Amino acid sequence: MNCLILYGPPAVGKLTIAKELERLAGIKIFDNHQIIDVVEPLLTREYPGFVALVYKLQLDLITAAMDFKRHDIVFTFAFSKDEPEGIELINRIIAVGQEKDVTVQLVHLTCERSVLLQRVQEESRKAYGKMTAPAKLTKLFEQYDLESGFPDRPSITIDTTHSMAEETAREILSSRP
Asked: In Å, how far from its chain's centre is CA 57?
């Protein structure tokens, strides 16, 4: 079993590429918004334990999927090296993978910021409750480092600025161990 973690800033194409991975290779998608969408109606992001609860539920679900070993999974994640909780979550997923003999591969998706600011406005993002305001994305870039790779772990880095999702998915599939 393999677990791919696609990470990068909002609007870089994580979910779109994950859908291509599912179409091309049958890899099951676990989008980080799936848990956020479950938690948010009861506890807003202002709740002090919001992030910890979301990350715990995500880790629990990924751990269960690794136990089940029924199929490969792809987890989409908006990563910032400024957020220790996010670093811990990814490190724990990697540790669980090692414990359960599951290959965890990090895929760092990048894109030119001007393109991200255009993409974030796309109508398709609304259906998933994703950020759609360029000003909000700009503010996130001012507050967090959304462009750096994951620290102390190898990642495949792919620039999605000019590539199609299918092309990127094929590149990821060809680089799997």
From this structure: 15
Percent of the chain scoring above 90 in pLDDT: 93
**Distance (Å, whole) CA 16 – CA 165:** 6
Using CA atoms, how far apart are residues 72 and 172, in angstroms rounded to an integer? 13
Q: Residues 170, 24: contact at Cβ < 8 Å?
A: yes
2-174 falls under which CATH superfamily? Answer: P-loop containing nucleotide triphosphate hydrolases (3.40.50.300)
* Distance between CA atoms of residues 121 and 134, nearest Å: 7
Q: Which residues neighbour 143 within 8 Å (Cβ) at sequence distance 6 or greater? A: 82
> pTM of the prediction?
0.95
| Nearest one of 3, 53, 8, 13 to 162, comparing CA atoms | 13
What pLDDT score was predicted for residue 30? 96
Helix (H, G, I), strand (E, B) or coil at 42: coil
Give the model confidence (pLDDT) of 132-152 as tens digits: 999 999 999 999 999 999 999
CA distances 150 to 87, 91, 117, 163, Å, are 8, 10, 22, 22
| Identity of the residue numbered 20 | E
pLDDT interval class at 176 (50, 70, 90): confident
Neighbour count for residue 92 (Cβ, 10 Å)? 16
